[in-house]
Amino acid sequence: MSHQVVPVKVYAAVFGALLALTATTVAVSKLELGEYNFVVAMTIAVIKGTLVVMFFMDVRRASSMTRLFIGAGFFWLAILLVFLLSDYLSRGWLLNIHWL
Amino acid sequence: MADSEVILAPQEAGLQHHFDDSAQQLESSTLGMWVFLVTEVMFFGGMFGAYTVYRNMYPEAFASTSQFMNVTIGAINTSVLIFSSFTMVLAVRSAQLGQKKALIAFLVLTLILGCVFLSLKYVEYHEKWVDHHIPGPGFQYADSRYTHQAQILFYLYFAMTGMHAIHMIVGAGLLTTLIVMAARNRFSSRWYTPVEMIGLYWHFVDIVWIFLFPLLYLIGHTK
């Protein structure tokens, strides 16, 4: 795992992209998009997070073992959020079913 | 005498005896650091989960709080943190190249940017204090319909940004340690693992903020 040194240009490009995305997310938040405001804000946040993880934290060159651990971590986070929301979002749905 | 003499293999810089070589040692450190960071993801994940549930229960109340969030400071702080991640990655790069002066310079710059972030956070907390937006007996809210529900948002705001700020303070301490170690010539282009590991920690704290900023500051911003 002898790491080759990454050129400053690559880091600078990622830095520029992160700043541009920050400006974009603030600009988009001023538009009236209804529910899509949240979707756009979260999509931009995920893109920014991925850029930091892949380039600044160098996961794109990490070993498969490390990637497996990271993937498992985020999978467990997904379980937490999905199961939590499947409970809270579905509450009250049954009240609308009159034939029950 | 020759029989009992232990012949030491030429040691690689910073290599502990229980590892085969530096590559294996670095991979173990990286994996261990990521295991720690995954527990941190779980820890913050719980708070993000609480936020998601309450935002879902009281969407109007949560949206109404965004007018009291200082988006300008929030956006500046986001940029400051991203800039500090950039200087951190340049510090790691300098360590890889064995450039001691550049390493120290970038670490100091990262530390300064971290302190700028915390100072701006202080300004924001002070604003909340002046506006009576601290959850508790003194809490006041402009829209009386939402006094209770908005208090939940401000509680989450302080819990999440507060935990984030504590991580920043810990990070500042770690950076100071790195600067001292670098000044004492502890790192070389062959061994700089602590710089890389604390770099991972610093970037993780940056990522938490990348998610906190839109969730706390930009929700219901259009209203």
Short summary:
The complex is a heterodimer of chains A (100) and B (223). With 100 residues, chain A is mainly alpha-helical. The longest helix of chain A has 25 residues, at 64-88.
Tell how many strands the DSSP assignment of chain A holds: 0
Main sheet makeup of chain A: none
Helix share bin of chain A? 55-70%
SSE order of chain B, as H and E? HHHHHH
- CA(first)-CA(last) distance of chain A: 62 Å
- What is the CATH superfamily label of chain B? Cytochrome c oxidase, subunit III, four-helix bundle
Descriptors:
heterodimer, A: 100 residues, mainly alpha, 3 helices, flat, B: 223 residues, Four Helix Bundle (Hemerythrin (Met), subunit A), 6 helices, elongated
Account of the protein in words:
The complex is a heterodimer of chains A (100) and B (223). Chain A has 3 helices and no strands. Chain A is mainly alpha-helical. In chain A, helix 1 (8-29) packs antiparallel against helix 2 (36-56). Chain A is flat. The longest helix of chain B is centred in the C-terminal third of the chain and has 37 residues, at 147-183. Chain B has a single domain, classed as Four Helix Bundle (Hemerythrin (Met), subunit A) (Up-down Bundle). Chain B is 73% helix and 0% strand. With 223 residues, chain B is mostly helical. Chain B has 6 helices and no strands. The chains are: A mainly alpha (100), B mainly alpha (223). Chains A and B meet through helix 1, helix 2 and helix 3 of A and helix 1, helix 3 and helix 6 of B.
List the helices and strands and how they pair.
The complex is a heterodimer of chains A (100) and B (223).
Chain A: H1 8-29, H2 36-56, H3 64-88
Helix pairs in contact in A: 1-2
Chain B: H1 22-57, H2 59-65, H3 71-97, H4 100-130, H5 147-183, H6 193-217
Helix pairs in contact in B: 1-5, 1-6, 2-5, 3-4, 3-6, 4-5, 5-6
